[in-house]
Amino acid sequence: MKKVCFVLSAWLVLAFLGCSSIYVKSDYDHDIDFTQYTTFKWMRNPKKGSKNSVRKGSLLDKRIRRAVEQELEAKGYEVKKSGRVDALLVYHVNLQKRVEVSPARYGYYGWRRGHVHRYKQGSIIIDVVDPRLKQLIWRGAAVGTIGKPDASQEKVNAAMTKVFEKYPPE
Questions:
Q1: What's the confidence (pLDDT) of residue 56?
Q2: Angle at Cα 79 formed by Cα 63 and Cα 33, nearest 5°?
Q3: pTM of the predicted model, to two decimals?
């Protein structure tokens, strides 16, 4: 039952990808020269087995990896399956329940009742790690409200395109 719940929640995490209201942010180590990173490979997810990890080999896992690889290759980088590389890639997904409360207020027709809005927020974080320094050098994230569950390859690609717009940092 836990696996079924996880699979459903993992699909929901990326359901927001088709929405136009995706908030994208990136941050990086300003002391790093990003021109030295030309080859990448995926590292094993350090949160394996946690409730926010996506099972390796699942449809969602394949779609995320494919989208990230396409973005990097379009920028002239090489993504390898094995061997030595300049940088490692890892991603994390998260699903959170949110509550937004608007307070009661007085208006033209008297007092108005407050409103409670419950929704789910999903996020995906892509990390680039330097294997020699053993530290995070760049992080990109997409966050959005989850609507209808649909994590098609096109929607995952669209979200990753937005995340990697500012990679490499200048």
A1: 78
A2: 115
A3: 0.73
